[in-house]
Structure formats: C-alpha cells, structure tokens
Amino acid sequence: MRIPTHHMPKMQRNHAKFEFPKNGIQIKNLELVRKKHLQIALGASKLFVKKGYHKATMREICKATGFTIGNLYDYIKTKDDVLCLVFDTFHSIWSHQLENEGVFDIEDPMEQLRMAIRKRLELINQLRDMILLMYTDSKILPREFLKTVLKNESYLIENYERILRNGIEKNVFKIKDPFFAANVIVYLLSIEPLRGWNLRRKYNISQINRRLEKYIFNLVLNRE
Amino acid sequence: MRIPTHHMPKMQRNHAKFEFPKNGIQIKNLELVRKKHLQIALGASKLFVKKGYHKATMREICKATGFTIGNLYDYIKTKDDVLCLVFDTFHSIWSHQLENEGVFDIEDPMEQLRMAIRKRLELINQLRDMILLMYTDSKILPREFLKTVLKNESYLIENYERILRNGIEKNVFKIKDPFFAANVIVYLLSIEPLRGWNLRRKYNISQINRRLEKYIFNLVLNRE
Amino acid sequence: MRIPTHHMPKMQRNHAKFEFPKNGIQIKNLELVRKKHLQIALGASKLFVKKGYHKATMREICKATGFTIGNLYDYIKTKDDVLCLVFDTFHSIWSHQLENEGVFDIEDPMEQLRMAIRKRLELINQLRDMILLMYTDSKILPREFLKTVLKNESYLIENYERILRNGIEKNVFKIKDPFFAANVIVYLLSIEPLRGWNLRRKYNISQINRRLEKYIFNLVLNRE
Amino acid sequence: MRIPTHHMPKMQRNHAKFEFPKNGIQIKNLELVRKKHLQIALGASKLFVKKGYHKATMREICKATGFTIGNLYDYIKTKDDVLCLVFDTFHSIWSHQLENEGVFDIEDPMEQLRMAIRKRLELINQLRDMILLMYTDSKILPREFLKTVLKNESYLIENYERILRNGIEKNVFKIKDPFFAANVIVYLLSIEPLRGWNLRRKYNISQINRRLEKYIFNLVLNRE
DNA sequence: GATGAATGAGTGTTCATTCAT
DNA sequence: CATGAATGAACACTCATTCAT
Fold it and tell me: What confidence category does residue A73 fall into, taking pLDDT thresholds of 50, 70 and 90?
C-alpha cells in the first residue's frame, strides 16, 4: 500500500475532535504526540491490512510502528485507540478528498463529475487495502468514534450529491434523486477493493476504472 | 433474521471439510453430524452477527448453540471451523439461490432479470446481518475454505452473467460486457446491508429496492 | 502457621453472604467450588503471610494452591477475590470463635472471661501470621467486603462485651463501660502478633499470655 | 494530617542510607538533599496514606511531591527509598517524641506519666493516618531499614519503661514488670488509629483519650 | 455420545527505571 | 541540576482446547 504522502499535511486539519487518547496522555509535547500518532497509524495500518486488527498483537504493532511497548502506550490508552488512529488518519483522507483536489472549482458538470470519479479511483487504488480494512473493521470501533466515521462518510456522499445537483440545475444530468445516486456512485467506486478478486481475473485496474466511469455517466445521463 | 429453511437440504453439498470432524472419534451417524453442524451454524451465526467472530468465545458459542463445550468439540476441530460452518450454511443459500427459485425457467429476459433481482433483494433483506458478517469476516476464513467461498460467489455472478447473455442474444439488453455488468449488478444489490446506514435515513427497504431495480434496468437497457 | 483444622467444618456456616466471585463462575458443581475455595484460601494465606498480598503474583498463588492459572480463574474473578477468600476463611474463625468454644455455657463470670481469654490466646498463637496479615492487608479489601469484615469484628467485640455485662450484673466485674473495655481487651489480646517482636526478646509466648491475662483481670476487677 | 514541623530539624539524624542518593551523581549541596528528601517524604506520605504504597505510582509520587520523574530519581534510587524516607521522617517524630517534649524534666511520676500519655495521644491524633500506614506498610521496608525502625520503636518503649521505673522507685507505681507494662501502654495508646472504627461509633476522640488515660493509670497503680 | 473441570500459551497493559538533551 | 520520552520486564487475566469420567 502506497501512502499518498502528498495529502498528509492536510490530514488532521479538520479533526481536532479526534483527540487521542480521550483522556490525558503522559507525553506533554503536543507536536510530538501528533507526529507519533501519525507514525503509529502508518505502521499499524500496514500490519492490520496484513493480519487484521484482532490477530495483530500489541507486540507486532510495536514492531510495525517502531515503538517499544511502553513508549507506544505513552501515546495510546488501549489497543482500540490504535485502530482509531488508523481510521482517523486514513478516513480523513478518504472522506475529505474532494475538497483537497479542487474539484469544486470546476464549473462544467461533466468535467466536474469526471474529475471527481477519476481522482477518487486514483485514491482508491492507492488505498486499496486500507479500504478493505475500513470496511471490515469499522464495526470494531468504539461507538462514539464510529459515529464520527459515519458522519465523515456521509459528508463524502454529500459532496457527490452536490456535484450531481449542480449538473441537474445546469440541465446536464437527468437524474431525479441525487441523494440515492450519490450513494450508488460512491458505493460503486469501491467495487474494486471490495469485490475485485473476480474482476481482476479479466481486467487490469485501468480497465475496471474506465468501465466504472462509463457506467456512472450512463447512470447519470439517462432518464431513470 | 429469518432463516429461509426451505433451502437447507441443499446446503451442505460440497464440503469435504466437515465430513470427519475428529480423526480419532468415529461418529458413525453421518446424518446426525449434519444435523448438529446445522445446529451449530444457526446458533453461532446469530452470535457472530451480534458480537463478531473474534469477540465471541467458545463458551458463548456453546450457549448459543445449545452444546456443552466437550460435545461441541465432537463436531468441530477448532473455533475457525465454526465460522466455516456458518459460511458453509449461509453462503450456500447465498450463492445458489437462483437455481432454487426457478429463475432459469423464465424465457423472457426482462422478466427473468426482474425475477432475479427481486428474489435476490428478498433474500438480502432476510439475511441482512449475515451478509455484513460474510463481508467483514470472510478474511478470517482458512485459505482453502475461502477459495471455495469465492468460487461459489463467482458462480453466483456467472448466473447473472448467463441471464444477461440471454437478454443480449434476444436483443433485449444492450450491454457489451455482461461479465462486468454481472459483477456490478451483484455488487449493487448488496448496497443496503453494507451501506444502508445512510440510505435508511431517507428510504425504507422497499423504496431502496425499487430504486435499485430501476438503476439496474437502466444500466442494462441503455447503450453504454 | 498451623491451621486449626478442627474449626474448619464450621467455618463457612454463617457466611452464605460471602459468595465468590460476586457474579457467576464457570464451575457448576457448587460443592466443588466450596472445596476449591478452601484450597485457595489455605494455600494463598501461607503465601501472603510470607510475601504480602501485593508482591505475590498470580503464578505464585497458583503454585501455592496447586492450581493451574486457568483453573484458578474458574473459581475467582480477580486477584482481589483471593484475598477475600483468605479473609472469608480465616476471619470467620477469628470472629466467631467464642460461640464455637462453649464459652457462653459457663455461668461463673470469672471462669467465663478466663476461658474467653485463654481460648482466644490459643487461637491467636495458632494464627499469628494470619492476624498480622489481616491487620496489614484489610485495607486492600473491596469496600463492600471490608464492611462485612468489620461487622464480624465488632460482633466479636460484642461477645466480649456480653461477657463483661454478665460479670457486672453478677457484681463480679467493677467496670462502668463494658463497650470500651471489650474493645481494649480484644485489642490487647492481639499484642503478640502485632508488637511481639519486642516482647519476645524477653518472654516466651506463655509468659506473654499469662501477663496479658493478669492485666485484663486487673482491668476488669478494679474500680476505674 | 497536620505535620508537627517543630520536630523536623531533628528528624534525619541517623540514616546513612540517604547520604549519597546516587553513586554516580555527586550532589554536592548536602543541605539541599536533606531539603528535597523532606519534600519527598511530606508529599509522598499524603499519597501513601490515601492510596497505599503499592498502588501509588512513581508518577503520582512525582505529582504529589512536585518533582519531575528524572529529578526525583536524583534523590532516590528506588521506589522503596521513598517509603524509607517517609518512615525516616515520621518514625523519628514518632519514636523520639518524649525527649523533645520535656517529659523527662518532670519529677513527679504521676505528672510525668500523665504528660507522657497526653503528649503522645496528641501526636497520635495528629498523625492518625500515618500511624496506620506505618503499621500496614512497615513490612514492605527493606530488612536493614526495618531493623532501624524497630530499634527506634523499642527506644520509645524504653522511654516509657524509664518513666515507669522512676515511679516504681518512688513508690508511686505498683507494677512489677515495667518492661511489659511499657509495651502494653505504648500499644494501647495506638488503639484509636488502629481499631478506632469501632470506638468512634460511640465516642469522640477526647472521650477515647480520657478513657485510655484512666485505664493506663489503673493498670499502673493497682497491684497486679 | 455427553459433560465440564483442567490446561497453559498468549494477551493487553502497567510502571519502575534510565538516559539523552 | 532538571526534564520527560523511552525502555522492557513483569503482571493480571482470557480463552481455545483437551481429557478423565
């Protein structure tokens, strides 16, 4: 899994709400904490992708992140926090992508949607395994944190809905229910990480992506 | 979750894995073993849906299935086997549905596809939680067993592909790539169990289902 | 520490209230649980006396009690429970002694008090180290359990108070405040286990006991 | 707990243990070390009284004493040293009290004993919780240090013995065995911190003290 | 076949202590 | 002298699995 490092500086911007761990930690230097949290998230995500959250032991997480056990626990309170950190890091990228890509500056609805699809598919290819992880392990997340994740996710869908509404207003898109369509589109875009094992037997990634794009435009341009 | 019991007789067809649960102990009555395996799968699935596989303990599985610990281990070898049994039971229903519904007896492609969609959505609604479980926990399955599961899954997709090809031959469906379309359709049909938390805020199940049906027909009837 | 086994059959009589652990345990055979709890208490008490509660590890407790770790945890929920079991076992002996010794059948107050003192000193000598343990580690006990322990302890003191009142009524004892006197007497009787390191430099146990007896009679027979 | 600061100057007399806290680091200013040791003892004692020695972490000790972790370890070598410092500080007050109170300047044995009792009870009331701590946690002390503590304690008892002998010589006290009596007296005087939970249900502190005084005089004035 | 007590490797977590800055 | 991040041995506890009855 390549990590899209060009996104990193922006990652934790909107997420003062994700403070780890909930209660005070040992370490006092706040900048350091942020740095280490990122280090944990990056290392642990790779491990979780490989072994799954439950089968990864704290000792393995330490090795994967380059921490000693005690030191790791200076930055988290429980193992669950590690998963939260992983989600915090990647789900931010995941759900706040469009704002960061300048998609909303594009006027032409067709071009805007095409951009939104392509950029998303690029990101999805980069984060393939993380996306699978985010699907399979999100139900492990603490209730409160899961709520935030879902909120982010629906925020992402709203972004697509906005693009669709823009196209509808300009009489380019023919769909009647942009909310449902946005859900379908966002869902469809993840087909490759989730069900790719079958598609990949016949197509390479870019063939899949091209077809997805066509399907989505088809969906958006034809009367329902 | 209602379990569609009319499917049960066919369920355990192809799984050598469970034929001799314990090397040393010869359980003669094979019919009994099958009965007990079903009992385990039914009880355990409910538990796994509630708690997840990893957080469910063997003791809880015993309680949920009505076995004592020692007795349960007469029918399985490891905890993983329980998950396999659950998959074995439900994934058979899941992937061999269409054959059992008489869908292939229908001549008219439109009618056939409509039937295939509706029957599937019905089943998906019944098995909502199991489907989520099958997505999230399939990666826990032993390698060999996972292969069987995926084979079943692709068999299901092939069924849809066959329906599409039938419609293409009869000049009803306009699609060029029935393999890809089948994958997309099967994937789309599961949107509710997997991403329903967002859709359900606006629609009830049947509204979702109606929209899905329309989308799929749209997809199939329009030139790509 | 010799364990006064002749008391054992009576030990758990009055203490249905002490159920370990608070919530259900794995083991179903209740008689077995009682037997094992006793085994735990006897083994652990020796260890705690030697090392103290906090320095004793669960593995040492296992070795001292003859359990494997997992099996020990079939009978307790936490390490604290082991201490509670120890207290439960010995504090019962400790605080319900007099009823079991026939002291209350004696009519003559002098004889009754003498008996109460001697029997107690005998017990105290047997339980020397346990008494020290009960003093030093009682503050570790869970709040609720400590309350029961203190109630038992005050019940013991009440027994002495009753003996004193009997002597006052029969004009043998001259004391005005039997409650305070009973507290002092019970406290004094434990001087050897608690502060014996100094006394033992000059006296043997029976010399200490003889002197204590004299002091208490002095206290009880003279006008305040 | 008020700390009787007027005793402090004499406190750290006889404890080579803390003269060079760290082999490698030569802290030149010995006066500073003494000051810091006192700071540690005062802060830590409050914490130990509240949580017990074992449950108090070094981090909590730091917070309670106003040190940073690294700095604290400039003045001690192990956590046990903190307990030793606490004992060193308070046990000195505890066992060298009488010399500092001018008790030995009093000629009249009755007056002298009364003074010795009252001053002691005053101190005991001030140090209530510390006394309980000194009882419960003394067995944690390193062997060598415990010996010093016990020596101090027996020194205290000797002081009372001296007072008693003085009274015997002057034909005021009737006791035959001043050593035993001194042990009993010193032990009795601590009844309130150790067993007060029962007494305090009926009496306030001064009522307890008055009764104790009477009992001790009774003990000392009557033929055994 | 059924029972449930026993096993012990392995887990997440704590915390006294060290040491670079 | 002071700081606090880093270390890792040790801990309490869990739970899949076995096996005597």
Answer: very high
Among A141-145, B18-22, D180-184, the range scoring the smallest mean pLDDT is B18-22
Chains D and B touch (3+ CB pairs under 8 A): no
- In the three-class reduction of DSSP (H, G, I as helix; E, B as strand; rest coil), residue A224 is classed as coil
B191 — contact with chain A (CB < 8 Å)?
yes
CA D159 to chain centre: 14
Distance CA C153, CA C131 (A): 12
The position carrying tokens 């469970």 is B18
Report the distance separating Cα D75 and Cα D17, nearest Å: 12
pLDDT at D13 exceeding the cut of 60: no
Flag whether pLDDT at D193 surpasses 90. yes
User: How far apart are alpha carbons D156 and B1 in whole angstroms?
Assistant: 77
The residue type at B87: F
Q: Note whether C92 and C15 are within 8 A (CB).
A: yes
Is A211 in Cβ contact with B180 (below 8 Å)?
Answer: yes
Q: CB contact, 8 Å: C183 with chain D?
A: yes
Measured CA to CA, the distance from residue B120 to residue B93 in angstroms comes to 11
pTM of the model: 0.87
**Does A21 sit behind a cis peptide bond, omega within 30 degrees of 0 on the bond before it?**
yes
CA B83 from centre of chain:
14
* Separation in Å, CA of A104 to nearest CA in chain B: 23
What one-letter code names the amino acid at D35? K
Q: Do residues D118 and D101 touch, judged by C-beta distance below 8 A?
A: no
Determine the nucleotide nearest to B57 by Cα–C1' distance.
F15
Distance CA A89, CA A63 (A): 19
Query: What confidence tier does D220 reach under pLDDT thresholds 50, 70, 90?
Result: very high
Strands of A138-212, DSSP E = none
DSSP structure string for B67-99: --HHHHTTT-SSHHHHHHHHHHHHHHHHHSHHH
Helix/strand/coil (H, E, C) string of chain D? CCCCHHHHHHCCCCCHHHCCCCCCCCCCCHHHHHHHHHHHHHHHHHHHHHHCCCCCCHHHHHHHHCCCHHHHCCCCCCHHHHHHHHHHHHHHHHHCHHHHCCHHHCCCHHHHHHHHHHHHHHHHHHCHHHHHHHHHHHHHCCHHHHHHHHHHHHHHHHHHHHHHHHHHHCCCCCCCCHHHHHHHHHHHHCHHHHHHHHHCCCCCHHHHHHHHHHHHHHHHHCCC
Q: What sign for the dihedral angle of Cα D32, D38, D42, D48? A: positive
pLDDT mean by block of 10 residues, chain C; 224 residues: 36 39 67 93 96 96 97 96 95 86 91 95 94 90 92 94 95 94 97 94 96 94 71
Q: Over A52-71, what HEC string results?
A: CCCCCCHHHHHHHHCCCHHH
CA B78/CA B60 separation, integer angstroms:
15
Nearest to A198 by CA among B160, B103, B217: B160
Nearest Cα neighbor of A134 from A121, A158, A117, A150 is A150
Interface test with A, best of B55, B211, B219 (most A CBs within 10 A): B211
Q: Nearest C-alpha of chain D: how many angstroms from C50?
A: 10
- Residue B15 tokens read as 């799984």
Cβ of residue D70 lies below 7 Å from strand F: yes
Which residue from C197, C50, C49 is spatially nearest to D146, judged by alpha carbons? Answer: C197
The string of pLDDT tens digits covering residues B15-73 is: 445 543 444 444 557 888 999 999 999 999 999 999 999 999 999 999 999 999 999 99
Contact (CB, 8 A) for C80 and C56: no
Alpha helices in B127-190 (DSSP H): 128-137, 143-169, 178-189
